Amino acid sequence: MQTSPTALVPSPRRRAKGADRRRQVVEATLDVLAAKGYAELTIGDIARSLGISTALILQHFKTKDALLLEAQRLLAAEYHDNWQRALAASGPSAAEKLWSLVAAEFAEAICTPRKIMAWKAFWAEGRGRREYIAEFGARNVEYLKLLTALCATIIKEGGYAGYDAKVVARTIDSLETGLWLELTSTATPMTVNQTRRTAFSHLAMIFPRHFTPKGPIRGPIKRAR
C-alpha cells in the first residue's frame, strides 16, 4: 500500500521546534486561560488544544506555574512595547504624546477579548498578581510617571487651576483599566472603537483647551483668564 506524499508531511504543530514550540505553547496557554481561568487550567488542557502530549510541553516548561508566568511575560512585553512604540511615533507636544498613549491602550493587536480575558484571569488570582507586581511592577510605575509628567506639562500650559497632575494621571489610568473590563462584560459589552472614543472624550473633558474628542487642538493654547 502506497502512502500519499501529503500523509508524510507533519502538521505545522508537530513540526514546531525549540523557540517556535515554546511560543506555540504559550499562545495556546492564553487561549485556555481565557476560556477556563487561572485555577482550572491544566497542562493537559493545553496539550489537547495543540494535539500534542503533556510530556512534550513539560520538556519546555517544568511546571504549570512556570508556563503561566511565561504567558504573563508575553502579555506584559506586548503591552509595554506597544505603548513605547506609540510614544516614539507621536508628535513632540505633551498633548500629542498623551493622545498617542491613550490610543495605544486600545490598539487592535493587544486589546482583544482573548488577551483581556487572560489578563483578567491573572488579576483575579492572588498568586498571579503577586508574580506580576514582582516582575513587572517597575513598568507600571514607569508608565504612571510618564502620564503624570505629561499631565503636569498640560496643566501648566493650559492654566488648569486646581488640577493635581498625579490625581489626573491616576484618573486616566483607572478609566483605561475600567474600559478594558467593559470589553468583556457579559451584560453590555463595548467594542474597541467605543472604548477608544470614550477614552478620547474623557481627555477632552479633562483638558478642554488641549483636546476635542477627535484629537489634540492645534495652534496656541488658550489659557483661562
From TrEMBL:
<protein>
    <submittedName>
        <fullName>TetR/AcrR family transcriptional regulator</fullName>
    </submittedName>
</protein>
<dbReference type="Pfam" id="PF13977">
    <property type="entry name" value="TetR_C_6"/>
</dbReference>
<keyword id="KW-0804">Transcription</keyword>
<keyword id="KW-0238">DNA-binding</keyword>
<feature type="domain" description="HTH tetR-type">
    <location>
        <begin position="19"/>
        <end position="79"/>
    </location>
</feature>
<keyword id="KW-0678">Repressor</keyword>
<dbReference type="InterPro" id="IPR009057">
    <property type="entry name" value="Homeodomain-like_sf"/>
</dbReference>
<dbReference type="Pfam" id="PF00440">
    <property type="entry name" value="TetR_N"/>
</dbReference>
<keyword id="KW-0805">Transcription regulation</keyword>
<dbReference type="InterPro" id="IPR039538">
    <property type="entry name" value="BetI_C"/>
</dbReference>
<feature type="DNA-binding region" description="H-T-H motif">
    <location>
        <begin position="42"/>
        <end position="61"/>
    </location>
</feature>
<dbReference type="InterPro" id="IPR050109">
    <property type="entry name" value="HTH-type_TetR-like_transc_reg"/>
</dbReference>
<dbReference type="InterPro" id="IPR036271">
    <property type="entry name" value="Tet_transcr_reg_TetR-rel_C_sf"/>
</dbReference>
<dbReference type="InterPro" id="IPR001647">
    <property type="entry name" value="HTH_TetR"/>
</dbReference>
<feature type="region of interest" description="Disordered">
    <location>
        <begin position="1"/>
        <end position="20"/>
    </location>
</feature>
